[in-house]
UniProtKB/TrEMBL annotation, chain A:
<comment type="similarity">
    <text>Belongs to the ABC transporter superfamily.</text>
</comment>
<dbReference type="InterPro" id="IPR027417">
    <property type="entry name" value="P-loop_NTPase"/>
</dbReference>
<dbReference type="Pfam" id="PF00005">
    <property type="entry name" value="ABC_tran"/>
</dbReference>
<dbReference type="GO" id="GO:0016887">
    <property type="term" value="F:ATP hydrolysis activity"/>
</dbReference>
<dbReference type="InterPro" id="IPR017871">
    <property type="entry name" value="ABC_transporter-like_CS"/>
</dbReference>
<protein>
    <submittedName>
        <fullName>Branched-chain amino acid transport system ATP-binding protein</fullName>
    </submittedName>
</protein>
<keyword id="KW-0547">Nucleotide-binding</keyword>
<keyword id="KW-0067">ATP-binding</keyword>
<dbReference type="GO" id="GO:0015807">
    <property type="term" value="P:L-amino acid transport"/>
</dbReference>
UniProtKB/TrEMBL annotation, chain B:
<protein>
    <submittedName>
        <fullName>Branched-chain amino acid transport system permease protein</fullName>
    </submittedName>
</protein>
<dbReference type="GO" id="GO:0006865">
    <property type="term" value="P:amino acid transport"/>
</dbReference>
<keyword id="KW-1003">Cell membrane</keyword>
<keyword id="KW-1133">Transmembrane helix</keyword>
<feature type="transmembrane region" description="Helical">
    <location>
        <begin position="481"/>
        <end position="510"/>
    </location>
</feature>
<dbReference type="GO" id="GO:0005886">
    <property type="term" value="C:plasma membrane"/>
</dbReference>
<feature type="transmembrane region" description="Helical">
    <location>
        <begin position="556"/>
        <end position="574"/>
    </location>
</feature>
<feature type="transmembrane region" description="Helical">
    <location>
        <begin position="323"/>
        <end position="343"/>
    </location>
</feature>
<keyword id="KW-0812">Transmembrane</keyword>
C-alpha cells in the first residue's frame, strides 16, 4: 500500500496555544485509520491540520509525497478531501447541484450513486430539506465524486440516530476497498469505528497515547478505556 | 388615462436604475453575503466617467486621469469605458475592502459598505468638474404614440435593458456551474474551499458583473434622469427596498419591485399636481415610498424572534463595560473646561461641536453597540429635536430647558416609530429600514417647503433665570456660557447613560444583543427592550440636535441630512461603537468637530474631510473591527483583563 498522508511530529493549535503536540501518523491507500479520544483530546485539530486548514506550529504534513499546498482548494483538487463535522454540504443547493458542483473530469457520479442509491431519488431536493442521515450520505457522496485519494472524516455520526450510524459506517469500509481511498476517521462510536478500521490511534490531552491494529484494540477494550481516561503516552512522534 | 400611461413610462428610467441596483444587490448578497450600500455610488461614478469622456475625452480615475483624445469621445465607446471603469472599481472594492471582511461581523461589513458609498460620492466633486456638465443622449430620441400618449422609445429600451440584465444575472447564478459554485461559496466558504472551489475568485466575478450591469443601465438612463453630483448615491435606497421586498433571494422579483417603485414615484408626481392633493404631500412623498414599502414588507415577512440558526447574523464586536466612570468623568470635565478656556472662535466652535457630536455618537453606542440594532437614522432623530426646537422657541415661546425636553421628547417618539420595524427586522436589513426612514423624514419633513416657515427655521438663544446662555455675543462665535451649558448637559446625560448601562437595563440590552431567543427565554421582554433602546437613543440624539440648533441659531435641511448621519455612524464606528469612550473619539473626529477644524483651518484640507473620514471608516472596518477605543483599550489593558461581554 502506498503512503498517502503523513504527519511528522506535528504540533498545532489556536492563537499560539498548542492543542495537539508531537502527532505522528500516516495513512496508506485503501487503509482506514480510526482516530479516537474523549472530547477535547485534539482529534478535530489534528484533522484540520491534516487538511491544511490549520498550519502546524512545528512538524510537517505531507500528502501524496509532497508538503501540503498553501490553498485549501488546491489540496482538495489534488485529492485530499475533508468531510467536516458540519458535513460541508450546501443547504441552499439541491442534491444534484451539491454533487455536480464537486465534479471533475472523469468523475464517478454513477459509481458513487450506486454506493448510495437512496440519493438517486432525492436529486432534485434542496439539501436543507434532507434528514440528517441523508445529508451525511450526501456529504460522503459529494466527497467521493472528487475521486479523492485521502478522505478525512470528522465525527460522521454526530447528531445521527445509532441505526443510521450503523448503516453508514460500513459504507466507509466499502468505499475504501472499492476506490482504494485512504481514510482518517474521527469517531466517537469506538466499537463501530474499530470494526471497520485497519489501525487506530487514541488521543488524550493533545497527544497520542495509544496506537495499534484495530482488531487488537477491539479485543483489548481495557487498554482503550485507560487511554481515554489519560494513560501515560506510549507513543513517539514518528508516524504511527 | 393617457396621462397615467405617460407618467408610467416616465417612471421607467428611474425604475430601471432602481431595478438593476436591486438585482445587483441581491446577486452580490447571494454571492458574498454583503449588503452593498455602495451600489448607487458605483452608478454615480460611471455616469460621471462617461460625462467627462463625452465632454473632454479624458478618462478620470479615482487617482489620476488618462487623456484619450483631443476632443469629446463618441457616445458608445464612452459608455463602454464607463462600464469597464465601474467594473474595475467594483473589483477593487471586493479585493481591498470586502474580501478582507468576509468573516467580519455584519456591522463591520455594513459600515465598510457605507464608508465606500461615502468615499466614492465624495470623490466625484473632487475628481470631476460638476458645474454645467450635461449628459447628451446615448439612446435614440425617437418617440412612438400609443393610447393617445407620446412615449419615448429610450424609456422602453431602458425597461428592456434592466429586465434583460436582471434575467442574465439570475440565469448566471441559477444555471451555470460558476453561478452555483458562487452561491455555495457564499453559504459556506470553508466548505466551498474544501470542495475545491475558489470563493474569492467567484465573488470577484460577481462584483465585476454587478458593477458592469449597474453602470450600463445608469449610464444609459443618465440623459433622461440628468446629471447630479450626488443624487445617484441615494438610488441605492429604492434599490435596497426592492431587494428586501425580494427577501434578498429572487433577482427577478427585486428587478420588478425596483421598476414598480420607479413607476409609483412617477405616479405620485402626477397625483401631486391634482387640486385636491394636500400641500404637505407635494414634496418628499416619493422619497418616503421606499421606506413605507420596506417597512411593510419586512414587518410582514419578518419574525418577532429570529428563526433557529439565524442568530449568527447579529454577531457584533465585544463590549467593554466602563469600570471607573467617576474619575474618568472628572478628567474629561477638566479637559473640556481647559479646551473651552484656552480656545476661541472657530476652534472653540469645533470643541463644542465635538462635545455635542459625542452625545449623538453616544446614542449610537447605546443603540448599535450595546443593543445590537444597526441604525442609520441618528441624525434624523437629532434633526427632529432641532426642528421642533425651532418651533418651540420661535412659535410657542417654550422656555429653556423645557424647550429641549419637549423637542427631545418628540424625537423620542419618532425614534420609537422608526424602531417599530426592529421588532421584526434585524442586522443589515434594519440598517436599510432606518436609512430609508431617515431619508423619508429628511425629505418629507426637514426639506418640505410646506413645513418650513417663510423666514427659515430660526432658533432663539437659551436663557435660564435671566442668565443669557446664547451661543453668540457680538463677534464671539461661541460664548463660554453656552459652551459650559453644553458640557453640563452632555456630561449629565453621559453619566446617566453609563449608570443605566451598568445596571439591569444594560444587561437586558446585552442579552438581547447576544441572543434574542435566549433573552426571551429568561423573561426579558425583547420588544420592550428594543423600543426602550430606540427611545433612549433618539432622546440622546434629540438633545444633541437641540444643542446643534442652539449652536447654529438657524437650521436647514443640510444641518441634519442623511450624509451627516452616515458620517456620524462612520465616526462612531471608527471611534469604537461598542464603548462609551468610542463616542468621545467619534465626537473629536465628527463633522465640524476638532479634527475638521484642524484639517480646515490649520491644514487647509476641509474639502477632503468627507473623503478622509470615509477612507478612515473603511480602513478601520478592515483593520480593526472594534474601533479606535477598542484597539487602544486592548493595548492599555493587555496585562489586566477587563470585564468583556461577547
Amino acid at each position: 500500500m502506498t503512503e498517502m498522508l503523513r504527519l511528522d511530529a506535528v504540533t498545532a493549535g489556536y492563537a499560539g496555544i498548542p492543542a495537539v503536540r508531537d502527532i505522528g501518523l500516516s495513512v496508506a491507500s485503501g487503509e482506514i485509520v480510526a482516530m479516537l479520544g474523549p472530547n477535547g483530546a485534539g482529534k478535530t485539530t489534528t484533522l484540520r491540520t491534516a487538511a491544511g486548514i490549520l498550519t502546524p506550529m512545528t512538524g510537517t504534513v505531507s500528502a501524496f509525497g509532497r508538503p501540503l499546498r498553501r490553498r485549501l482548494e488546491q489540496n482538495a483538487r489534488a485529492g485530499l478531501v475533508l468531510v467536516p463535522d458540519t458535513r460541508g454540504v450546501f443547504h441552499s443547493l439541491t442534491v444534484r447541484e451539491n454533487l455536480t458542483l464537486a465534479r471533475r473530469r472523469n468523475d464517478n457520479l454513477d459509481e458513487v450513486l450506486d454506493l448510495f442509491p437512496a440519493l438517486r431519488e432525492l436529486m432534485g431536493r434542496r439539501c436543507g430539506r434532507l434528514s440528517g442521515g441523508e445529508q451525511q450520505m450526501l456529504a460522503l457522496a459529494k466527497a467521493l465524486v472528487h475521486r479523492p485519494r485521502v478522505l478525512l472524516i470528522d465525527e460522521m455520526s454526530m447528531g445521527l440516530a445509532p441505526v443510521a450510524v450503523q448503516a453508514l459506517l460500513p459504507s466507509i469500509r466499502a468505499l475504501a476497498d472499492r476506490f482504494s481511498v485512504g481514510v482518517l476517521l474521527v469517531e466517537q462510536h469506538i466499537d463501530l469505528a474499530l470494526s471497520i478500521a485497519d489501525r487506530a490511534v487514541v488521543l488524550h490531552h493533545g497527544r497520542i497515547v495509544l496506537t495499534g491494529p484495530a482488531a487488537e484494540l477491539r479485543a483489548d477494550r481495557n487498554a482503550v478505556a485507560e487511554a481515554y481516561f489519560g494513560a501515560s503516552p506510549t507513543h513517539d512522534s514518528s508516524p504511527a | 388615462m393617457d396621462q397615467v400611461l405617460l407618467f408610467i413610462t416616465l417612471g421607467f428610467a428611474g425604475g430601471a436604475v432602481y431595478a438593476v441596483i436591486a438585482a445587483s444587490i441581491v446577486s452580490l448578497h447571494a454571492a458574498t453575503g454583503v449588503l452593498n450600500f455602495a451600489q448607487g455610488s458605483l452608478a454615480l461614478w460611471g455616469v460621471w466617467v462617461v460625462a467627462e469622456l463625452r465632454h473632454s475625452g479624458t478618462l478620470v480615475l479615482p487617482v489620476g486621469s488618462i487623456p484619450l483624445g483631443s476632443g469629446p469621445m463618441a457616445a458608445w465607446p464612452a459608455a463602454g469605458l464607463g462600464v469597464l471603469s465601474v467594473a474595475a472599481l467594483a473589483l477593487a472594492a471586493h479585493l481591498l475592502v470586502f474580501r478582507p471582511l468576509r468573516t467580519a461581523p455584519p456591522l463591520a461589513q455594513v459600515v465598510a459598505s457605507v464608508g465606500l458609498m461615502l468615499a466614492i460620492a465624495s470623490l466625484v466633486p473632487l475628481r470631476f468638474s460638476t458645474e454645467g456638465v450635461l449628459a447628451p443622449p446615448i439612446l435614440t430620441e425617437r418617440t412612438l404614440e400609443a393610447a393617445g400618449t407620446v412615449i419615448n422609445v429610450s424609456d422602453l429600451i431602458l425597461l428592456a435593458t434592466a429586465l434583460t440584465v436582471a434575467a442574465a444575472l439570475s440565469a448566471y447564478l441559477r444555471f451555470t456551474r460558476w453561478g452555483v459554485a458562487t452561491r455555495a461559496g457564499a453559504e459556506d466558504e470553508l466548505a466551498a474551499r474544501l470542495t475545491g472551489l475558489s470563493p474569492d475568485r467567484l465573488a470577484a466575478v460577481m462584483w465585476l458583473l454587478t458593477g458592469a450591469a449597474t453602470a450600463l443601465v445608469a449610464i444609459l438612463a443618465a440623459p433622461t434622469l440628468g446629471l447630479d453630483p450626488i443624487g445617484y448615491m441615494f438610488y441605492v435606497l429604492p434599490g435596497l427596498a426592492a431587494a428586501l421586498l425580494a427577501r434578498l433571494t429572487s433577482i427577478m422579483v427585486a428587478c420588478l419591485a425596483g421598476l414598480a417603485i420607479g413607476v409609483l414615484q412617477s405616479i405620485l408626481l402626477l397625483l401631486s399636481t391634482f387640486d385636491g392633493w394636500p400641500v404637505w404631500a407635494q414634496a418628499g412623498l416619493g422619497d418616503a415610498v421606499p421606506f413605507v414599502i420596506v417597512v411593510v414588507a419586512l414587518v410582514i415577512l419578518g419574525r418577532r424572534l429570529p428563526a433557529r440558526g439565524a442568530l449568527g447574523t447579529v454577531r457584533m464586536p465585544a463590549v467593554a463595560l466602563p469600570t471607573r466612570p467617576w474619575p474618568t468623568a472628572g478628567v474629561l470635565l477638566a479637559a473640556a473646561a481647559l479646551a473651552i478656556g484656552l480656545t476661541s472662535g472657530s476652534w472653540r466652535f469645533g470643541v463644542v461641536t465635538s462635545i455635542i457630536m459625542a452625545l449623538i455618537a453616544l446614542s449610537l453606542v447605546v443603540l448599535t453597540g450595546y443593543l445590537g440594532q444597526i441604525s442609520l437614522a441618528s441624525m434624523a432623530f437629532a434633526g427632529t429635536g432641532g426642528f421642533i426646537l425651532s418651533r418651540a422657541t420661535m412659535a410657542w415661546n417654550v422656555p429653556f430647558p423645557l424647550s429641549v425636553l419637549l423637542s427631545a421628547g418628540v424625537a423620542t417618539l419618532v425614534g420609537v416609530l422608526v424602531g417599530l420595524p426592529a421588532l421584526r427586522v434585524r442586522g443589515a436589513q434594519l440598517a436599510v429600514v432606518t436609512l430609508a426612514g431617515a431619508v423619508a423624514v429628511q425629505q418629507a419633513a426637514f426639506a418640505n417647503p410646506a413645513l418650513t416657515p417663510f423666514e427659515g427655521n430660526l432658533i432663539d438663544g437659551p436663557t435660564l433665570f435671566g442668565w443669557d446662555l446664547a451661543v453668540r455675543d457680538g463677534t464671539d462665535l461661541t460664548t463660554s456660557a453656552f459652551a459650559a451649558t453644553v458640557v453640563v448637559i452632555v456630561g449629565v446625560l453621559a453619566m446617566a447613560v453609563v449608570r443605566l448601562l451598568a445596571g439591569f437595563t444594560g444587561q437586558s440590552f446585552l442579552a438581547v444583543r447576544s441572543n434574542e431567543r435566549a433573552a426571551a427565554s429568561v423573561g426579558i421582554d425583547v420588544a420592550r427592550v428594543k423600543l426602550a433602546g430606540f427611545a433612549l437613543s433618539a432622546f440622546l440624539a434629540g438633545v444633541g440636535g437641540c444643542l446643534i440648533g442652539y449652536s447654529r441659531s438657524q437650521l436647514s435641511v443640510e444641518s441634519f441630512n442623511v450624509i451627516v448621519g452616515l458620517s456620524v455612524l462612520c465616526m462612531a464606528y471608527v471611534g469604537g461603537i461598542t464603548r462609551v469612550s468610542g463616542a468621545l473619539i467619534a465626537g473629536l473626529i465628527a463633522p465640524l468637530g476638532v479634527l475638521y477644524t484642524l484639517l480646515n483651518t490649520t491644514l487647509g484640507l476641509g474639502h477632503y474631510y468627507t473623503l478622509i473620514a470615509a477612507c478612515a471608516l473603511v480602513l478601520t472596518a478592515v483593520l480593526n473591527p472594534v474601533g479606535i477605543a477598542g484597539g487602544t483599550s486592548g493595548l492599555l489593558h493587555r496585562r489586566t483583563p477587563r470585564k468583556v461581554v461577547l
